[in-house]
Amino acid sequence: MTSTSVITQTRELAVFEDEGDNNDFMSLVISLQLEDLEAMEATDKGKARDDSGLGDTVYSIYRAELEAMRRCLEDQKIAQSMDAALDADAGILEEVLREEAIARRDHELAVALSQGREIPQEEPQPQPAAKPPGEGYRPSATSTRTPTPVQQPKTKEVSEHSISPRSQTSSSDGQGTSIASSSRIITAVQNIIKFECVICMTSVGSDQAVKVPCGHHYDFDCLVELFLQATKDESLMPARCCKQPIPLDLARPHLTSQQALEYRAKEIEHDTPNRLYCPRATCSAFLGAAGGAGTVTCYRCAVRVCKECKALEHPLGECRPDFGDETMLELARREGYQRCPVCHRFTELAHGCYHMTCVCRAQFCYLCGARWKTCKCREWDEERLLDRAQAQVRAEFGRPAQAAQVPLFRQRVAQAVDYLRDNHDCSHPRWRYRAGGDNCEECGHYLPQFLLRVFGAPGTVSKTAVTWM
């Protein structure tokens, strides 16, 4: 059989073949044409030499086209396989999405009723794909998939070169519905994959959460609020979770330019160990690091400040002590305050052990002021330990339950005291929601709705934390 007859018969077979995506048949056509090409090349070798080299060029181009068609078919098989898998799961995803929406609606109604708010308007719920009677799920018309725009020209190229003229016309109908269906499924997956915000305990979709270095997730509002609070409360600086700083880049897409600049300025201020501030009480602008000779001009009120003693410029004499500082030191000694050895802030111990952590993150002993673990002072006082245990259990019970369950309250306080004797110097990242109002241990504010509690041991509260809700 000659090469021409092989090609002719192949094309005749293609004419009678179904014009669907019969990739196996098309692969067979290309294989036969490659074999025919090899036969033609072998036949030409026995003929007279063609100095023009035109024959070799034609064969090379033809072989390259056939190989490109073969790769196109292989890619199309993979794409169709993935497409079929998505179609098979589309109904399940849509059904789960609908159930999630209903559950979310129920939660919103419950919260609104418990807080006495107006019931929110119901949003349209996604409907599952229709199923023919007596059959399992089949892709609906809107989810029927066709080759993508990238695949269409390649299919047409195969038809032009290898198949019959009848198969050269290809319809692009359905491409829009294919893309829309894919987008719908991606959205469904994003809504199904939920993460719990570590601050407000709300479940949010994967596209509405930010994962921080420690592995926890924040919703956008809580992450922004954390960074805004850090600019006002230095104890929260740098913004962190589980003692690991949260990079500003994670929150920058959700902050305004002004908010990001303010946070960065406060971060620089926090990282400066020996700070210099304007001594004018009506200004108090941060002026950078103190120490060294010379003066610096306040950028806000234009006064000149001595970098050595942190007072107003005094060109006629040496630095003199501030009598206001001496008065404050005397008050601190009388009241039992301690001073941070790093930033020199005064601190007061309300309850707990003598291990102090300053807002500048320095750790020191409250009794002697030395850096923590460098002295031989005792680590706690029994009365303060009892106060700490009572505060913990009170936060766990809530005030109404404490009055109603006095024996159980006392028992839990005794358990908390025993636990704190062994674990007074530890911290735990496990948080639990507790409904009802109480005072926050950190800021003292009364929170009327709920508290988040950190557990040191099963049933024992080691810290009460405030949220901004």
TrEMBL record:
<dbReference type="InterPro" id="IPR044066">
    <property type="entry name" value="TRIAD_supradom"/>
</dbReference>
<feature type="domain" description="RING-type">
    <location>
        <begin position="193"/>
        <end position="381"/>
    </location>
</feature>
<dbReference type="GO" id="GO:0008270">
    <property type="term" value="F:zinc ion binding"/>
</dbReference>
<dbReference type="Pfam" id="PF17123">
    <property type="entry name" value="zf-RING_11"/>
</dbReference>
<dbReference type="InterPro" id="IPR002867">
    <property type="entry name" value="IBR_dom"/>
</dbReference>
<keyword id="KW-0833">Ubl conjugation pathway</keyword>
<dbReference type="Pfam" id="PF01485">
    <property type="entry name" value="IBR"/>
</dbReference>
<feature type="compositionally biased region" description="Low complexity">
    <location>
        <begin position="167"/>
        <end position="178"/>
    </location>
</feature>
<keyword id="KW-0863">Zinc-finger</keyword>
<dbReference type="InterPro" id="IPR001841">
    <property type="entry name" value="Znf_RING"/>
</dbReference>
<keyword id="KW-0677">Repeat</keyword>
<keyword id="KW-0479">Metal-binding</keyword>
<feature type="region of interest" description="Disordered">
    <location>
        <begin position="116"/>
        <end position="178"/>
    </location>
</feature>
<protein>
    <recommendedName>
        <fullName>RBR-type E3 ubiquitin transferase</fullName>
        <ecNumber>2.3.2.31</ecNumber>
    </recommendedName>
</protein>
<feature type="compositionally biased region" description="Low complexity">
    <location>
        <begin position="132"/>
        <end position="149"/>
    </location>
</feature>
<dbReference type="GO" id="GO:0061630">
    <property type="term" value="F:ubiquitin protein ligase activity"/>
</dbReference>
<keyword id="KW-0808">Transferase</keyword>
<dbReference type="InterPro" id="IPR031127">
    <property type="entry name" value="E3_UB_ligase_RBR"/>
</dbReference>
<keyword id="KW-0862">Zinc</keyword>
<dbReference type="InterPro" id="IPR013083">
    <property type="entry name" value="Znf_RING/FYVE/PHD"/>
</dbReference>
<dbReference type="GO" id="GO:0016567">
    <property type="term" value="P:protein ubiquitination"/>
</dbReference>
